[in-house]
């Protein structure tokens, strides 16, 4: 799947957001969990999950999705299966593997699995699918392609807007930066919301904090070309550091680890912003660098979907995480609590309320 393909789908996603939402050698599956379904009156239900290439220990959205499934399976008293994808070529065979294992609900983690998920769902209409981070609209008609797919997606721009405002307020150099894995909508939504928040700060405070790594007008920016914590990601982070940024937002699973390494090597006072999870909690090794994290409640959304499906109440209605329903949010400042301006949290609370009531507009492919 190319960047061009995904960017071409942006208009379809926007229609979906306004019209519908607001109204390979694959790995063998791993089992876990509680009671075996069907025995002694136990629930006859098997939830399963396929990761993207980031893996289940990415300290980010794969891990959050997995934790949500495990919690639901434990509560239901059933086993679960998970299979990790190490490359794009693993997606389809991994899904076939889980279908053959008798899974009742299959969760696909990440937009990269959308095409494979859509094909698998079409071929297996009796199996329920949960798609994290993609509406699975491969024909771009504004609707999920199959009726047995439940999308769990997030208007992350709202929380990223708050992070951008906080970054601009914290910055001493007047330059903040961001970069992503690939220019997919679910990545760029962070970067664009972040830039909008910085601009809002500049307008409100009469400042001129610059954003490097994202061009709002062009809807393009700095990308590593993948989602691995590698030397390429580190070089992009270093390039931004060399341009005097003192707050850095990497968007793309584990690529934040490369950014953290570049920050430590620089010897400069540079704050990191995490994404998806509260990275302060999921990866304490970078906790001292974290200003905050832009959170997506992937674990909660997955838990709710699996719990409902296990109880025979699967609902394909898309879940859209927002500030209002707490599907997205900003983590606390943790170790930076004493370093930020005392007035900042109060200002963020007011902005959050404005975003929720619509008086402060935040644009995204989900909100228009």
TrEMBL record:
Subcellular location per the Swiss-Prot or TrEMBL entry: Cell membrane
Segment forming the signal sequence: 1-28
UniProt KW Zinc-finger keyword: no
Domain spans labelled ABC transporter substrate-binding protein PnrA-like: 49-338
UniProt topology in membrane: Lipid-anchor
A Pfam family assignment: Bmp
Keyword check for Membrane: yes
SUPFAM superfamilies: Periplasmic binding protein-like I (SSF53822)
Superkingdom to which the source organism belongs: Bacteria
Keywords, comma-separated and alphabetical: Cell membrane, Lipoprotein, Membrane, Signal
Family: Belongs to the BMP lipoprotein family.
Identification of the protein by name: BMP family ABC transporter substrate-binding protein
Record organism: Microterricola pindariensis
